[in-house]
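The record is kept unedited without comment:

——
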Amino acid sequence: MPLSLKNIAIVITFLVFSFVNIFQSSHLYAEVNAIKRTIGSSEKIADIFSKGPTNIRAEKTKNEIEKIKKAAESGDAKAQFEMARMCVEGQLGENQKKNTIIWLRKAAENGYAEAQNDIGLAFSYGYFIEKNDKIANQWFARAAEQGHPIAKYNLAMSYHEGDGVLKDYKKSFALAQESAAAGIAEAATLVAYMYGRGEGVMQNRKMAIKYFKVAAEQGNADAQFNLGTIYYDNQANNSADVEIAAECFKKAASSGHGQAMSNLGTMYLHGEGVPKDYANAYKWSIKAAKKGVADGFFNIGLIYEYGLGVKIDLAEALSYYEVAKDLNSENIEMIKYQYHALKSKVLQSVVKEAESKTTDLKKQYSIK
């Protein structure tokens, strides 16, 4: 898990129509995958733990470092937290990175909420310290008691997932609601999910949509994706909703949401909510494939099988289907059907060519 606030990655499998209209699926409120990352205007220590500094700060002068170190050694929690950050950034030398947790623990024990949340994340992921979800939750709880909204969300996800504690949807919902009220988009997404599934609260679709909208307006890709699915499902009642669905998927896809990329490719492929555009269908399906999304590979297979904006290439189509069928997808039966249907009607030489192409594709997309 490369991020650093327990994030809700709701993956909702949308529609994948074969070109012969055999299969369509739409499932709302799929499983939650708990990931952690911090939120804030500046990069946090936990982000640097996992991916290294990306927002490089100006290095402190020797005098500035000495001043901060003196304050930290005198028990100043904020200075101790700054020492931890400078350690993990490498500003004090590569050999000092191991001291990140020492300074972070000092700041946390002195009541600095940001440090309490970050050391919770360190224990949760095993950054410079042995992984221990139970201790992680103790630190999240201490930060949450001080009103730290991200810590409330992290603790909410622990209760939701049963990480180091017994699952407790009611506690999870209450903490997530408080965090969402403080403006944490991931928390609003979790609240929406729990309303949608009736976890810890009475099931309420309208409230689920309300909270998804709150998170989507803050740029949360998972919420944008969920809204897209909701609007797509409602097109029978309101034909304009399919266009809104496409806009939602565009936003989520532009933020890097793999399944949204695939869904957008599908909509361009069939001209749903957007003008039919095979070039864009190919573009977004390839982007989805690069994210390892099976439906993205499947869409490319359709494009090559039926010559949609490209020259028909059955070996290429078969190879994309073959990769897709070995990945996880709610539409796996459709993918397998299309693969076997095409394989059964092509020459053996095409099958052998496809096998070679499949090997190359897996290497190209780093698929084992």
Summary: The chain is about 60% helix and 0% strand.
